[in-house]
């Protein structure tokens, strides 16, 4: 017996349910603490049955991971200024600005608190963007640090300040972070 390939319907009911559930998560996180976020509450807000949400995501942690992955994918453009320093400064300013949004912070904190995969859902796209910036510099023939060093020196402090501090990371602070990193990496 030959298995029929699964059919994906990017539009239609499935996409509408996903959008409604994602919107419900964002609204609930804006209104109440992350601990109050439950599958039944999300389903009620989205106008779908809880079994629909459980069947698709399985748990609140998986749902939060999907919402975070969707939210943090492609929202910050990788700049191309012609230099590593210019690219990193512009990118860090954009990421710092993004991390000042209260709704973004609520989603990040809830997702990170939901389990070990939560942090990856919030940072995977940022890692890919940073890697693209560094690889572009190498393709231009420039000396570029390794990605993990850049993650540790740039994203680490930025995310720490956003998540665990009451002092948001300003674009000026992010530029100084880049300058310090490039000086020590040289």
Quick structural overview:
The chain has 186 residues and is mainly alpha-helical.
Describe the 3D structure.
It is a single chain. The chain has 186 residues and is mainly α. The protein contains nine helices and no strands. The chain has helices at residues 12-31, 39-46, 50-57, 60-71, 84-98, 102-113, 118-139, 147-164, 171-185. Helix 5 (84-98) packs antiparallel against helix 7 (118-139). The longest helix is centred in the last third of the chain and has 22 residues, at 118-139. The radius of gyration is 19 Å and the shape is elongated.
Envelope shape: elongated
Total helices: the number is: 9
Q: What value does the Rg take, in angstroms?
A: 19 Å
Q: Could you describe the largest sheet, including whether it forms a barrel?
A: none
Structural class estimated from helices and strands: mainly alpha
**Which residues form runs of ≥5 with pLDDT under 50?**
1-9
- Ends distance: 61 Å
Strand content: under 5%
Keywords:
9 helices; 186 residues; mainly alpha; 70% helix; disordered N terminus
Helix and strand topology:
Blueprint: H1 12-31, H2 39-46, H3 50-57, H4 60-71, H5 84-98, H6 102-113, H7 118-139, H8 147-164, H9 171-185
Helix pairs in contact: 1-2, 2-3, 4-6, 4-7, 5-7, 5-9, 6-7, 7-8, 8-9
């Amino acid at each position: 017996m030959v298995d029929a390939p699964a059919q994906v319907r990017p539009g239609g009911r499935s996409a509408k349910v996903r959008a409604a559930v994602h919107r419900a998560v964002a609204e609930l996180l804006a209104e109440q603490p992350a601990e109050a976020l439950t599958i039944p509450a999300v389903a009620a807000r989205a106008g779908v049955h809880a079994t629909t949400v459980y069947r698709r995501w399985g748990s609140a942690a998986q749902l939060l991971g999907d919402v975070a992955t969707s939210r943090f994918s492609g929202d910050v453009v990788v700049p191309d200024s012609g230099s590593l320093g210019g690219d990193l400064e512009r990118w860090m300013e954009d990421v710092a600005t993004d991390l000042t949004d209260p709704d973004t912070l609520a989603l990040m904190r809830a997702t990170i608190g939901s389990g070990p995969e939560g942090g990856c859902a919030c940072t995977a796209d940022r890692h890919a963007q940073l890697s693209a910036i560094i690889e572009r510099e190498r393709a231009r023939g420039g000396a570029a640090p390794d990605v993990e060093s850049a993650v540790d020196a740039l994203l680490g402090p930025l995310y720490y300040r956003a998540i665990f501090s009451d002092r948001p990371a300003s674009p000026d602070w992010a530029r100084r972070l880049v300058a310090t990193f490039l000086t020590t990496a040289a």
